[in-house]
């Protein structure tokens, strides 16, 4: 069974995470921008992790080559 990180959970349920962030920062335009920024970061980091997991390592190359 896969263990989910907080980032995974937030990316899967960005709406609830955004509501929580808004509640913590106060409802205003800046809070909405912060929520959007956090959501974009979480989405991109999740996509990169999924892509990394799907890419098989090439034998004989060091990671990152």
Task: Summarize this structure as a short list of keywords or feature phrases.
3 helices, 65 residues, mainly alpha
Can you walk me through this structure?
By secondary structure, this protein is mainly alpha-helical. It has one domain (6-53). It is 69% helix and 0% strand. Helix 1 crosses helix 2, helix 1 packs across helix 3 (29-54) and helix 2 (14-25) runs antiparallel to helix 3. The chain is elongated. The mean pLDDT is 70.
Short recap of the structure:
By secondary structure, the protein is mainly alpha-helical. The protein has three helices and no strands.
Radius of gyration: 16 Å
Please summarize the sheet with the most strands. none
- Beta fraction: under 5%
Quickly count the helices: 3
Provide the succession of SSEs: HHH
**Helix vs. strand class:** mainly alpha
Q: Give the CA-based shape.
A: elongated
How are the SSEs placed, and which strands pair?
Layout: H1 6-12, H2 14-25, H3 29-54
Helix pairs in contact: 1-2, 1-3, 2-3
């Amino acid at each position: 069974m896969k263990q989910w990180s907080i980032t995974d959970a937030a990316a899967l349920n960005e709406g609830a995470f955004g509501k929580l962030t808004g509640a913590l920062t106060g409802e205003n335009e800046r809070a909405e921008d912060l929520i959007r920024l956090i959501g974009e970061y979480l989405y991109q980091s999740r996509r990169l992790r999924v892509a990394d997991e799907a890419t098989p390592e090439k034998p004989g190359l060091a990671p990152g080559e």
